[in-house]
Automatic annotation (TrEMBL):
Species: Allohahella marinimesophila
InterPro entries: AAA+_ATPase, ABC_transporter-like_ATP-bd, ABC_transporter-like_CS, ABC_transpr_PhnC, MetN_ABC_transporter-like, P-loop_NTPase
Localization per Swiss-Prot or TrEMBL: Cell inner membrane
Membrane topology designation: Peripheral membrane protein
Entry protein name: Phosphonate ABC transporter ATP-binding protein
Stored Pfam families: ABC_tran (PF00005)
Classification via Gene3D superfamilies: P-loop containing nucleotide triphosphate hydrolases
UniProt region (Disordered), positions on chain: 246-267
Lineage: Bacteria, Pseudomonadati, Pseudomonadota, Gammaproteobacteria, Oceanospirillales
Keyword annotations of the record: ATP-binding, Cell membrane, Membrane, Nucleotide-binding, Translocase, Transport
The keyword Translocase appears for this protein: yes
Cited SUPFAM superfamilies: P-loop containing nucleoside triphosphate hydrolases
């Protein structure tokens, strides 16, 4: 369970980016965070995984406090948090298998990491997960030879190799075409259920948020102003979050009359 209480993040003397935010994520739920650029969505994820330091408040993952950690304690906490980035963050010159196994770097010795000699159990798990997401045939292929969707699947498997207690995804479909975006969202939804893993997704695409998540959290100016089921995410919620402007939609079609596009999920 992720428990965030009164979280504040301020850069220098500027206005706070996060303003006393409270949020709980538990079970195998898939939670979307939506909001306009500058709402604080990415900052929230970076506070959770320790990429930026929270100004005040509490972030607990399964009862362990994450705020204020330093050094080895911070590194250990990051091992428990899987992170998927918009830009994939793969090492292009390495093979798919080598990129996937980098998710185990925090669990092996310096010599093993340097020589990329991983235990057989890690290699077996890597093959199993790659097969699950449909990229096992690319194990020996260089990462820069893959399509965007294939690269994001590699990033998903790398995160899962950490055996994380929560999975964070920062705009995981923003660099992908509409069909591939749906496939990645469907994959994350399935993996959350299969692995009993909570997933927190920062996403601009409100249509996909409604189709592929169990809950939507809407943010504006560093505050949470909506928290509910996708079925409750109506035009009033859109107007409150986006200030009356049309919400972004990346599915490639024309928005529906109420601001949502009618589209069926891809399995």
């Amino acid at each position: 369970m992720l428990e965030i209480t009164n979280l504040v993040k301020r850069y220098g003397q500027n206005e706070a980016v996060l303003k006393g935010l409270d949020l709980t994520v538990e079970g195998s739920s898939v939670v979307a965070i939506v909001g306009a650029s500058g709402a604080g969505k990415s900052t929230l994820l970076r506070c959770i995984n320790g990429l930026v330091e929270s100004t005040s408040g509490s972030i607990k993952l399964n009862g362990h406090e994450l705020v204020g950690l330093r050094g080895s304690a911070l590194r250990r906490s990051r091992q428990r948090i899987g992170m998927i980035f918009q830009g994939f963050n793969l090492i292009d010159r390495l093979s798919v298998m080598e990129n996937v196994l980098s998710g185990r770097l925090g669990y092996v010795s310096f010599f093993q990491a340097l020589t990329r000699r991983f235990p057989q159990v890690d290699i077996d798990r890597a093959f199993h997960l790659m097969e699950r997401v449909g990229i096992d045939q690319y194990a020996d292929k260089r990462a820069d030879q893959l399509s965007g969707g294939e690269r994001q699947r590699v990033a998903v498997v790398r995160a899962l190799m950490q055996e994380p207690e929560i999975l964070l995804a920062d705009e995981p479909t923003a660099s992908l075409d509409p069909k591939t975006s749906q496939q990645i969202m469907s994959l994350l939804q399935s993996l959350a259920s299969e692995m009993s893993l909570p997933v927190l997704i920062n996403i601009h695409n409100v249509t996909q948020a409604r189709l592929y998540t169990d809950r939507i959290v809407g943010m504006r100016h560093g505050q949470m102003i909506f928290d509910g089921a996708p079925s409750e995410f109506d035009q009033a919620a859109l107007d409150a979050i986006y200030g009356g402007i049309e919400a972004p939609d990346e599915t490639g079609g024309e928005p529906a009359r109420d601001g949502f596009q009618t589209q069926e999920p891809v399995a």
